[in-house]
Amino acid sequence: xxxxxxxxxxxxxxxxxxxxxxxxxxxxxxxxxxxxxxxxxxxxxxxxxxxxxxxxxxxxxxxxxxxxxxxxxxxxxxxxxxxxxxxxxxxxxxxxxxxxxxxxxxxxxxxxxxxxxxxxxxxxxxxxxxxxxxxxxxxxxxxxxxxxxxxxxxxxxxxxxxxxxxxxxxxxxxxxxxxxxxxxxxxxxxxxxxxxxxxxxxxxxxxxxxxxxxxxxxxxxxxxxxxxxxxxxxxxxxxxxxxxxxxxxxxxxxxxxxxxxxxxxxxxxxxxxxxxxxxxxxxxxxxxxxxxxxxxxxxxxxxxxxxxxxxxxxxxxxxxxxxxxxxxxxxxxxxxxxxxxxxxxxxxxxxxxxxxxxxxxxxxxxxxxxxxxxxxxxxxxxxxxxxxxxxxxxxxxxxxxxxxxxxxxxxxxxxxxxxxxxxxxxxxxxxxxxxxxxxxxxxxxxxxxxxxxxxxxxxxxxxxxxxxxxxxxxxxxxxxxxxxxxxxxxxxxxxxxxxxxxxxxxxxxxxxxxxxxxxxxxxxxxxxxxxxxxxxxxxxxxxxxxxxxxxxxxxxxxxxxxxxxxxxx
Length: 569
What we know:
By secondary structure, this protein is mainly beta. It folds into 2 domains: 2-368, Neuraminidase (6 Propeller), CATH 2.120.10.10; 382-567, Jelly Rolls (Sandwich). Helices cover 4% and strands 40% of the residues. The protein contains 4 helices and 41 strands. It is globular and about 75 Å long.
């Protein structure tokens, strides 16, 4: 049963282009399935009305032309476009006390205004100035203290660069602003030859905790999202500190389900090292926006489950990635969600019309204990591209095939992944890799059936807790466990197919080494834990690093026919 569900998840990544069928009812929704395309960038515009209608307005960045919204009355399974008169259709969130819809909006040099309904969604609108200072990326309102207070997260217009919250205690009629929360600048060094775009702490998201505190996560230029807490309902915030969540120059989104569990949407990804041309003023190129992840917490954020890829960019392997549809923002960064039925979640994610998606899933999918793949759907669930040199459009590279799926040499109708190093001066990095996600596991087993030909060198199997670019050799240094796919070390003496398995227990009282089995037999090799891992291993990364060719000019690689990850309780 687990394998069937995991394969359903595998198919979801290319649902739009592969023609995957939308379920007939919400009861059939389990693994993520794409059900539509948001009309604008995903962080605002999605609204669940009191009668169950879902609307997605088109008033965000990169919005489609016209005045309209998308409407669904079956939980997001099907949508229709509703045209309407020009006007202010802002209606993200409804006050639980008054029933009115409230939204803060940036009016450019005029500052920030509050748009509030009078008489519900079909009534009039009032427009009240909040501040003369512009803000950007203003998030939907969060109602705290039983609805008596509204808190809105935003950033921009302040020095030093940082984020803050607007607070209202009279249902949106008057507002106060909090102190500014900042984060340290990226300083470069190590693997970096330059300095990341130092934009400060921005694009904050927040949730009210059971103890009354507010918890904020924010986008930063560091390797992790930063977090801060407020003890007074968002008027003052403590100093920001690194959170447990990896994420660089991407937007996190926190929220709560009706049963009290917390959800987090974010890009659990690490970009390539910075180029020498990166000077900290503006981003040269985004290389970590190809996957959106989601995790769930049952204990107010102390522990988390899932860390699963909700959606992979359907154009992640495109040769014209940077300019297809115009050279503007793209990728799977940014998210907003609503719970359309108990445990059923509709998420709006991504930027650019060719990349963003409306995705339905059941949160039970986050609790799965296993995932399996045999390449029967090619690389639908994998990241396996390389970047071509030369920044195009808005901070983007075009891509090429990094490794390929080929017909199985012995089993008709089956496919294998063929991965080997191929030198190519056109590429930003010419290491070749393939990256695959599974549910995060602190105690687990990963197994793969593969063939290692004579003369194969420089190929490794990495286990990690986040997505790295397939070609990023930094992943070898940041991995939790790393295994060289070396015939001598593994005790393999032929070119046949062999099962290689890694078993780990991050909570072991002694040194949490990973054990290695080949064809079920325990090998003497023990893999030390190379880096700390707080929430469990959730990625395998096959990587072929640059090596000199053999005397006959070949660089033999590996072939993989299947992979499986399973938790060990």
